[in-house]
Design goal:
Blueprint: H1 2-26, E1 29-34, H2 36-51, E2 56-61, H3 67-73, E3 79-84, H4 85-95, E4 99-107, E5 111-114, E6 128-132, H5 135-147, E7 152-153, E8 166-168, E9 174-178, E10 192-195, H6 197-202, E11 213-214, H7 220-224, E12 227-232, H8 239-248, H9 251-261, E13 266-267
Parallel strand pairs: 1-2, 1-3, 6-9, 6-10
Antiparallel strand pairs: 3-12, 4-12, 4-13, 5-10, 5-11, 7-8
């Protein structure tokens, strides 16, 4: 009988130790869902930083913008890095998810690019400027034009700005709204174009090297549309997720972004 009890206790102790070891190992593995470019590339550098602290970073890449949130909500992965706050807010509201941001990492700036005119100084009365026709992109474009002194918007419109909110337009510029994906292709028929980051890159343009002007890191647009590190609500203070946050906001990551993307991706920290 004593022998049997001893065996049972030994088995229980063995399982307990294994469970403890498993938990410890899990605590050192961080799983993240990310878009391939630039997010997974940036995470690769963060992974090198984390390795020095004894963590293993595992990144799963998604082209989709829905699954990365679902796998974090369901607890399948620890975090994701692909979206900005307005998208997250909408996703939570529409899907009943409980996801929160714990860090703002980078933004992809809008730029003003030459069309038939090579500079803002060359603009003439009635010239056309093409901008995106969808809500947030439209507002970002208008705010960028305002920052360059081309128009003045009504006070307080911020990220809700539309062409109807233009209070001053000294040159009577014609603001042409169209699908964001089409703008790079009409540069030969309008004076200037305002193109968002991903479509500029697809057209071989870089906001840091090719744009006449680009969003500043301190602008309301950059702050609003910074790409964020997202976790399930309640996990914000997890030791390993705080370690991930620290790694993503490290000098190593900032240097990588600045040296790799030439201004097409800009650290916000």
């Amino acid at each position: 009988m004593k022998k049997t009890i001893s065996i049972v206790l030994a088995v229980v102790l063995c399982f307990g130790l294994l469970a403890g070891c498993g938990k410890s190992a899990d605590d050192k593995v961080i799983t993240v869902a990310a878009s391939p470019t630039p997010h997974a590339e940036i995470l690769a550098v963060a992974g090198e930083v984390l390795a020095k602290e004894g963590y293993t970073l595992k990144v799963t890449e998604y082209a989709d913008y829905v699954v990365p949130n679902n796998v974090v909500e369901d607890g399948e992965l620890d975090a994701n890095y692909f979206q900005h706050q307005p998208y997250l807010d909408t996703f939570n509201a529409e899907n009943g998810t409980h996801l929160v941001s714990i860090a703002s990492v980078h933004y992809e700036p809008f730029g003003i690019y030459a069309g038939t005119k090579s500079s803002i100084a060359d603009l003439a009365e009635g010239d056309k400027i093409a901008i995106p026709n969808d809500g947030s992109n439209r507002a970002r474009a208008l705010l960028l034009l305002e920052a360059q002194g081309l128009i003045k918007l009504k006070d307080g419109v911020g990220m809700d700005a539309t062409v109807l909110d233009i209070a001053e337009n000294v040159l009577n510029l014609e603001i042409v709204e169209m699908e964001a994906a089409q703008i790079a292709g009409v540069r030969d028929s309008v004076a200037l174009t305002v193109i968002n980051g991903n479509y500029a890159l697809l057209a071989g343009l870089n906001a840091g090297t090719d744009a006449i002007a680009a969003e500043d890191a301190a602008s309301v647009s950059a702050q609003t549309y910074a790409n964020i590190l997202v976790v399930k609500e309640g996990n914000e203070n997890s030791e390993k997720l705080q370690a991930l946050k620290k790694a993503l906001l490290s000098d190593e990551v900032k240097t990588f972004i600045n040296n790799t993307y030439s201004g097409a991706v800009v650290p916000i920290f």
